[in-house]
Amino acid sequence: MQKKGTKIMTQSKPRAAAQYGAAFAAALMTLTGCSSGTSGLRSVSTASAPSPEPLTWSECGKNLECATIEVPQEYTEPAGTQIPLAVMRHRATDPGHRIGSLVFNPGGPGVSATETLRNLPKTAGTPGAFSPAVLATFDVIAMDPRGVGQSQAVHCLTDKQRADAAGTAFAPSVPGGKPLPQLLADTAAFTSGCAKHQSKKFLASLSTDNVARDIDQVRSALGEDKITYYGLSYGTVVGPTYATLFPHRVRQMVLDAPVDTNQWFGNSLPFQHDVAVASERTLNAWFNTCRTEGTAVCPFGAGDPEAAFDTLIDTLEAEPLKITPAKGAALGGELDGAMTLEATRALAGDQNAWPLLTSALLAAQKGNGAPLYTLWSSVTVSPFPVPTAMFEAHTAVRCADWETPTGIAAHKAAAMKATTDAKRIGPRAAYSALNCARWPAPNKDRLTKPLTGAGAPPALVVGGRLDPVTPHHWAENMTRTLDSAVLLTREGVGHGSYGTNTCVNSAVDAALIHGTHPADGAVCKTEKLATTRPIVFGDR
Questions:
Q1: Are 387 and 169 in contact, with CB atoms under 8 Å apart?
Q2: What is the 8-class DSSP label of residue 112?
Q3: Per-state percent for the chain, helix, strand, coil, to nearest 5
Q4: Which of 46, 279, 483, 538 could form a disulfide with 468 if both were Cys (CB 3.0 to 4.6 A apart)?
Q5: How far apart are CA 117 and CA 379, in angstroms?
Q6: What is the pLDDT of residue 66?
Q7: What digits encode the pLDDT tens for the residues 470-500?
Q8: What is the share, in percent, of the chain residues with pLDDT greater than 70?
Q9: If we measure between CA atoms, which residue out of 126, 60, 55, 43 comes closest to residue 84?
Q10: Taking the CB of residue 303, how many other CB atoms lie within 10 A of it?
Q11: Are residues 127 and 500 in contact, defined by beta-carbon separation less than 8 angstroms?
């Protein structure tokens, strides 16, 4: 590893708040998890699995091809049950200069890689969006990990249960949003539903090391000797796992918004605490910026945005705002304090969405809850439980990897610590690992050895200074854990840097295409934090 420096790289290009809608919500929500132990990696490799047949592709969109690959459910039983995985390929737009295949994982866990690849041309300027240069020179390969998307997505709840959960009020003043007995009852319903809808053996197989082995099966089926890899958020757990199991198969690797893999495979409670504190820091950054700008620029709170926000949460929790549906839209609803807190958490996590947050909070103060309600509705995956189908796959993968205490006392202590250290966001994180504590399909041979990627080329690790999901010290820890890595820091608030910052874009493109890296410790600037340029929503 090179000696760390503080080289400042070029400034990013500002993005208009108007870019943020569904793309913002989808990009912001990629998640991760935590910890490591001391035992070794499993010796199982795909060498013992049957060599896959070449993929049979069919056209499934503009410049897109789709295929299915069969892989062993458990690589310890290579001739046993096989499971189908969905694969998509975006062909290099400049075949004459094609370098090879670039495999990517957009995170979650639970985010569909194939759906992300299908939508990438529509989401330029959002985290993980590939540049024209990368799309020209690589076949970009998306594989929905087992249990995710089109690869037998995990289901644990019925549509009615999910709808009921969405309509339940969560008091933000209560750790976990509900009394503990109700949380335990919800956990029992969730975990029993998971075991009912798919086999326990399948659930136990959803571990990241199996995902890495699946990627190598895809590599083999593609006929590639090596792959290039880009991972975002949870994808930065998949990448080092692959590089540790198959270092000779890695051409180049970029890890964006990295998880501390030495936490991912260990006790999940300190991990969830780190996420809560990171999210609280981004909310505090919005408060501090609003106060510093002054009321002429940021009128919310008349100089004391924290007090105004807390008052708004309490007011809406006591008397939610009724949301009248727009003409031709679905049924309306109501906006309560917990929903406002969740929407604010998500919006505060990306500085480019701050104008939306400012305007939506001001509107809610005036009695118009529609903007915040709409934004809350668009949050599909988050660091903490939300009632969506994607969360079910998200939980299943985490529980296959994590080592979660089963005793309730440990969860109570973690909940109290979270609410102390992150007083606004902490209650949303409290008890968020209960499903894994009661998980019905334990993974008995989980990874515990540090993921060093020894023997693979140096990796480029890109960490955001104020990341709401993967705090910057995780990027530092990953850089130290990997046998060879370079750390690039992006200043500012946001989860994921590639695709959003011209300086980072240049560095990542250089790493992926040419295998060249910036100086270790280099820093990319970003636009100044601002709550200004608000979109004005009218009174009720």
A1: no
A2: -
A3: 45, 15, 40
A4: 279
A5: 19
A6: 98
A7: 999 999 999 999 999 999 999 999 999 999 9
A8: 84
A9: 55
A10: 13
A11: yes
Encoded amino acid at 106, one letter: P
Question: Cβ-count burial of 55 within 10 angstroms (0-12 exposed, 13-18 middle, 19+ buried)?
Answer: middle
Amino acid making up residue 1? M
Helix, strand, or coil (residue 368): coil
Alpha-carbon dihedral 476, 478, 481, 485, rounded to 10 degrees: -90
CB atoms within 10 A of CB 52: 17
Do 453 and 240 contact (CB within 8 A), yes or no?
yes
The set of residues, in sequence order, having a beta carbon less than 8 Å from that of 514 and lying 6+ positions away, is none
Using alpha carbons, select from 313, 245, 258, 235 the residue that is nearest to residue 456. Answer: 245
Say whether 66 sits in a helix, a strand or coil: strand
Mean per-residue pLDDT pooled into runs of 10, the chain (540 residues): 41 38 36 36 57 93 95 94 97 97 94 91 79 96 97 91 70 82 93 96 97 98 97 97 98 98 93 95 96 94 96 94 72 83 92 93 95 79 52 94 95 94 89 95 89 97 97 98 98 94 96 97 90 55
Q: What is the largest CA-CA distance in the chain?
A: 69
pLDDT the model gives residue 1: 46
Let me know: does 310 contact 373? Beta carbons within 8 Å. no
* Angle of CA points 34, 107, 121, to nearest 5°: 165
Give the tokens for residue 538: 């009218």
- Which two tokens mark 304? 């004391």
Query: Could you write out the DSSP letters of every residue in 402-415?
Result: -B----HHHHHHHH
For residue 287, the surrounding DSSP H or E stretch is helix 268-293
Contact at 8 Å (CB) between 57 and 66? yes
Q: Measured in Å, how far apart are the chain's first and last C-alpha atoms? A: 57
Q: Is the peptide bond between 240 and the residue preceding it cis, with omega within 30 degrees of 0? A: no
Q: How many residues does this entry show for the chain?
A: 540
The predicted model scores a pTM of 0.89
Joined together, the tokens standing for residue 74 give 């458990």
User: Contact, 224 vs 103, CB < 8 A?
Assistant: no
Listed as own residue / partner, the contacts of 174-179 with beta carbons closer than 8 Å and 24 or more positions apart are 174/427, 175/415, 175/416, 175/418, 175/419, 175/426, 175/427, 175/430, 175/431, 176/415, 176/427, 176/430, 176/431, 176/432, 177/338, 177/427, 177/428, 177/430
Question: Are the beta carbons of 71 and 77 closer than 8 angstroms?
Answer: no
Q: Which residues contact 186 (CB under 8 A, 6 or more apart)?
A: 165, 178
Question: Measured on CA atoms in the order 129, 135, 137, 138, is the torsion positive or negative?
Answer: positive
Q: Please report, as a single letter, which amino acid is at residue 314.
A: D
Strands 485-493 and 82-90: unpaired
Angle in degrees, 0-180, between the axes of helices 235-245 and 208-222, rounded to the nearest 10? 70
Q: Please state the separation of Cα 47 from the chain's center in Å.
A: 31
Check residue 42 and give its pLDDT. 56
Q: Could you tell me the sign of the dihedral formed by the alpha carbons of 516, 519, 520, 524, in that order?
A: negative
Q: Does the CA dihedral 209-212-218-222 come out positive or negative?
A: negative
Contact (Cβ atoms closer than 8 angstroms) between residue 523 and residue 8: yes
